[in-house]
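Protocol step 6 of 9: fold each sequence in the batch and record its structure tokens directly after the sequence line. For illustration, a two-sequence batch is reproduced in full.

Sequence one:
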Amino acid sequence: MAASKNPQYTLRYFDRIGVAEGSKLLLSVANVEWAEEHPEWPLEKPNQPFGRMPVLIEKHANDKDFVICESGNIERYLARAYGFIPSDIRQAALQEQLRDQASDMFAAFISQLVAKSEEDRRENFAKFDGLLDKLVEVQTKQINANGNIGYMFGDRLSYADIVTYAFYKIIVVGMVKRQANIVNIVKPKLTPQLIKLIATVEANPLLASYMARGDSLAAIVTKPTPARL
């Protein structure tokens, strides 16, 4: 069942760019009332449904709170509730598989950060690098199939656009403190089609307030790389 009329939302997550980014974007573009909550961690860990975040709390005036967790689950719930995923199950599946691929990519990225040996790190990085090449290829193909108009499906913002943007923002902006050279790794791989999609998402008027709170991904990926001396 879709969300009831005019609910209020609280999104619990750490005060950083991470796996809740897609949910934040969806809440913003849905133009609903929402707020972030940053529980003290790990003190509040036992109080979360599965002992992890993000957690979404949907509040209704005349009903008990509806609480769900897991980033992909929260995203899909919001995307369905506010019309960013098609009702046709096949069309929906085409968008959702892109999100799952991005999730696998993020896991591959983290694996090379936490590798216990240099050999494992190199092996895990090579896996991440290869998967990223394939993901960019698939994403670009879909953008081209849609006429290269800045969207992956149709002529307006969709779940696929939002989670694609979120993935690159998590990697390029959110992870730079953990891997300083990540911009130089990812940026050369991004095609003009993907850069256009990133800029289109950022330019959405309903996202203006949220985008103003942090670094512009579009500015980072379009900034000229300084020449080596």
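Sequence two, same batch, same settings:
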Amino acid sequence: MSNKMAKKENYDKRLCSFLDKYDRAFIVAADNVGSKQFQDIRRGLREHSVVLMGKNTLMKRCIRLYAERTKEEKWNVLLDYLVGNVGIIFTNGELNNIRDEIMKFKVGAPARVGLVAPNDVEVPAGGTGLDPSSTNFFQVLNIPTKINKGTVEITSNVALIKAGEKVGASEATLLAKLGIKPFSYGLIVKFVYESGAVFDPMVLDITDEDLEKTVQLGIKRIAAACLALNYPTLASIPHSIVNGYKNVLAVSVETEYTFPLAEKVKAYLADPSAFASSAPEAAAGGDSALTEEKKEEAKAEEEEESDEDMGFSLFD
């Protein structure tokens, strides 16, 4: 057996052991991630996760063979997502925590000529520390500057590169002169796998409160539709009961028919002033009670002060 075949078999055994051991995984993009950074990531995730990189064709083959041997096809959903420079992080831990841990391992990188910018780059206003001979260089890039205390100062923030654009030679040179490392690289979570399902990592940001609001909005819409269609459901029945009570109350007010809950409404409509006068009386009663309490407290304080001013104590 050749050394190459032995390595493939060992890789297959390793991958299959991960498929047996773990139920969750992240598919991560590894563009511009160096070997030293990979070592740090593996070391940081070692307690609860394992990072597996390899050729996409080899990973797909191992997963297919695993499904054929074990009749367990839940991992087959990963096959369509193993595209590009990607790897798999297997874990049984809490997905939110593991994702946050992965995102910690970012390394700043300078702008290189021809590199596609992963994010917008802005040069901040302020001193540059460069001598006035560099003024022409800034003028070529349309960056407003002035001379302040013998150095070039940028007068306003300048959007230098937009995300998706290639870095030019002038932009790369300027950022290098200013000592700016505008990009940061690390493993980027592209997809999340759990129990046979693959979903976007943004799903992990959904909280219980978000789910509750979504369910409440759905119930409101169902209730509105059912009320409009006169089709009773669990969502619309409470509203139908309230609307029915309003109708019965309206009939009672307009006719001599009455029932206990309608008596108070009728009494209010017959003499609103009676209810208006009772409210101030209740408030006045409450105010008088508070006043009496304050008087009693003040009297007690005065008695305590008079005792303290007697001029003697038990130990004199």
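Proceed to step 7 once all outputs are recorded. Observation for sequence two: Residues 272-308 form the longest helix (37 residues).
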